[in-house]
Every structure is written in structure tokens, then in C-alpha cells.
Amino acid sequence: MPDVKNWQINRPMYYPYEEHHPRRQFAFVFNINRCIACQTCTMACKSTWTFSKGQEYMWWNNVETKPYGGYPQHWDAKVLKLLDEANPNGQTWSDGTFDGQTIFEAARKHYDADGHKVALGYLPADEEWRAPNFSEDVSTAYVGGALGLSKEGVSLPEHKTWFFYLQRICNHCTYPACLAACPRKAIYKRPEDGIVLIDQERCRGYRKCVEACPYKKSMFRGTTRVSEKCIGCYPRLEGKDPLSEGQPMETRCMTACVGQIRLQGLVKIGANGEWEEDRYNPLYYMIRVAKVALPLYPQFGTEPNGYYIPPRWVPRDYLKQMFGPGVDHAIETYQVPDRELLAVLQLFRKSQKIVFRYEIKEGPKVFEAERFGKKFELFNDTIIAYGQEGQELFRTTVEEPIHVRDPRHSNSV
After folding, report:
1. Helix, strand or coil for residue 153?
2. Which residues of 354-370 are buried (b: 16+ CB within 10 A; e: fewer)?
3. CB 228 within 8 A of CB 198
4. CB neighbours of 383 closer than 8 A, spacing ≥ 6?
5. What is the set of domains in the chain, with CATH numbers?
6. How many other C-beta atoms can be found within 10 angstroms of the C-beta atom of residue 164?
7. Model confidence band, residue 407 (pLDDT cutoffs 50, 70, 90)
8. What is the pLDDT of residues 336-392, one digit of tens each?
9. Which backbone phi and psi does 290 adopt, to 5 degrees?
10. Most buried residue, 20, 108, 222, 399, by CB count within 10 Å?
11. What does the alpha-carbon distance between residue 12 and residue 358 come to, in Å, rounded to a whole number?
12. HSE on the CB side for 272, CA within 13 Å?
């Protein structure tokens, strides 16, 4: 197979499958800084898609506590260890380019030159799937004074004792390892939106997809003896949900988010597989312009289409391993957002319908200060969101409106 271009690692890479690209790509941004781990997204997905017999251990959406949590347990630590063993001390970045080996390249070079093992991976044991909340709210080791009280305390930009919540669904990767690994060719990307699906009639339950997916988002169902995974709620994306009025709609996990941390969209893909410039699509702006949202473990090589605004209180070396070399820029940009970014961040969870374009109408300056050594200005701009056909979906302001209740009805609801 010829090499493919992976923009997330800034170089061509080996991919053991024929390259195909959709017309538009399902993608999303999660703002880790806002998540409270209420698990409302998890239960929204569970009650919609995986509530049947044989799906008890299936959590297509989960929220896990880092650095110690994970579902299945320690999934990322195990994959990273395999990569480091395949390429000792070589999994490094230089000027934004990944110099190490992806899961495809490591498998090709070190394990099976004939291509029978297309991606470096492992098959989780049954007990690893049984605790989706393993190590929930568990932080790094705490070193304090007498009675466990710290003499110095903690403060931003980085806590000495820390943890954060990582929200996860299938990344519907550009170069899916699950798809490449399936001997039955039962896995495919939809040409209209890039969602990765498993054909239940073709699947024979070999679990090669489970082994190959570095994010472990393909799951085996014992009652039917086939694998299943997140389907991106594609009926909602197609506008078939009664509430959507025929317009593309966000997934169940996105719309249920209490913390307003999730924003889903569809990005345009050119004939060469590159993102087409779409300057006022909010996902394109945050990922390709502001560069405040980063992919999860880009060094795996799958080019995931899930992006994260990194947590600002976590040690940078840990975050760089998880999100790549753009972490410093992303956090510094998020901590002192410019006028446009601050407005775009207001789009999160204001509507169930997918935002395809935004427009900002400038408002008055209401605040000015210095933050982290930089000048910060707050303008009460109005941001207008538009749908697929150019129709206005909603408009909101940077400052949340304050409504004073009539004192005659102070106890009414």
C-alpha cells in the first residue's frame, strides 16, 4: 500500500488498507476544562443503544478519570507500552513532526512483515471491561504536611496533585485500525459523513477490530457473537429524529451534556482527503485556525476525528504525551482567549442541531484585565449560529443575560 498523508503527525505514514475519504467527516470537540463527570452523556448513550442482553459491559460513551482510570482498564498505558517496546526511546516529536512509529508502522516492522497483523494492539481480558468507573476521582499521589494538609496549597496554571476527566466515544478515525484489521471487510466508513460502522451480517466475531483499535471502542457481544461500536447516532445526523425537523442533529451524548463541554459538526473533505477551508465552521476554526483543540494520542496514527481542549491544570509533559506537541499553544490560547474564540466557545450546547457556520456581531467592551501576563478584553458580542441550509439556528451573547424575577412572584416556578 502507498503511504497516506497524516496531517496530525505532520508526515506521510504507512496504512495497510486502501485509502478512502468521505465527502464530509463527523468530528467533535470536547472541552475537558468544563467536564464535571456527571456521566449524563454515558447514561444517555447507554439507555439509547446498549441496554439489551449481552451489552451489559458495552459503554460506547464513557468518562474516565486520568491519570489512573480507563475503560477498558489501562487501555492507553498498555498501547503506549507496546509502542515503546517496539521503538525504545524513539516515540518523539521534532518541530511538530512525529519521529516515532505509529501502531501500523510498528506492526509492519516488528511483528508481521506479511501484513497479517496490521496494527500493534492487544485483546483486553474480560475483567478489564467490568469496571467502567475504575479509579474514578482518583488523583495523583498527595504529599502534604501534618494531618494531610498541604503547607503550600495548589494553584493554577498547574496543580501539584491533580486529575481530570477524559470523555470518550469512537473517534471515527480517518485511518481506522479496526477497519484495516477486519479479515471479513465488515467495517466501513460511510461516504456521506465518515462514520465508521460494522456490518453485523458480515461480522463473524473474530475480534480483530477489538485488538487493533488503540482506543478500544470496538466491543464484542457474547450473545450475538459479533462486534459492535458507536454508530455516531447516524439517524440523528441524517435528520430522521422527530425533533430534528429534517436537519442534522447532534448525537445523544452530545445533546445530554450538562456541563456544555461538547460540540459536534461535519467538516468538508476535499478529493485529496484534506480538510477543505471552511473558516467560519466552528470546528474548523477551533482545530485548524485557533488550534485550541487537539486529537487524542495522534501518535497512534489513526488520525482520530475527536478533539480536546486540554485541561489547564495538568503537567504539560503528561498532556503532550496524550495530545501531542500543540498543548502549550492550546492551553495558553484557552487561558487568554481572543475575541473570536471567546464568542465561539458560547456555541457549545445551545442547540441540538449541528452548527455549520457562525457569524459574530460586535458588541461593547465590558471588561479588561491582565491574565497570565497578557492583556484580556471581554466584549459582549453576539454570535449567530447557522444550520446546513443557511438558516439561523440561534443567537447568543458572550455575557449570559440576567433576568430579574418580578418580586410579586419570588416563590413561583
Report:
1. coil
2. bbbbbebeeeeeeeeee
3. yes
4. 343, 344, 346, 347, 358, 359, 360, 361, 395, 396, 397, 398
5. 4-330 (3.30.70.20), 339-397 (no CATH)
6. 21
7. confident
8. 999 999 999 999 999 999 999 999 999 999 999 999 999 999 999 999 999 999 999
9. -70, -30
10. 108
11. 33
12. 7
Classified as helix, coil or strand, 378 is strand
**Cell 418580586 found at:** 407
DSSP string covering 281-319, please? SHHHIIIIIS---EESSGGGSS--SEEEE--TTS-HHHH
pTM of this structure? 0.95
Task: Dihedral sign for Cα 125, 58, 353, 64, please.
Answer: negative
159: left (phi over 0), alpha (psi -120 to 50) or beta: beta
Rounded to whole angstroms, the Cα distance separating 280 from 285 reads 6
User: Quick one: cell of 131?
Assistant: 469496571
Instruction: Please name the amino acid found at residue 306.
Output: G
| Residues counted in the chain | 413
Q: ∠217-71-188 over CA atoms, to 5°? A: 0
Q: Give the neighbor-by-neighbor strand order of the sheet with 392-397.
A: 357-361, 382-386, 392-397
Q: Write the DSSP string, 207-260.
A: -HHHHH-TT--EEEETTTTEEEE--TTHHHHTT-SGGGTTS-B--HHHHT-TT-
Distances (CA, A) of 36 to 50, 259, 348: 23, 7, 15
The dihedrals phi and psi of 372, each to the nearest 5 degrees, come to 50, 40
Tell me the average pLDDT across 49-69.
97
C-alpha cell at 294: 487537539
Q: For 374, what's the count of Cα atoms within 13 Å in the CB-facing half-sphere? A: 10
The conformational region for residue 172 under phi > 0 = left, psi -120 to 50 = alpha, else beta, is left
- Partners of residue 6 on adjacent β-strands: 11
The residue written with cell numbers 447516524 in the block is 234
Nearest to 295 by CA among 325, 337, 270: 325
Report whether 218 contacts 174 (CB < 8 A).
no
Q: What is the CA radius of gyration of the chain?
A: 22
Q: Which residues contact 410 (CB under 8 A, 6 or more apart)?
A: none
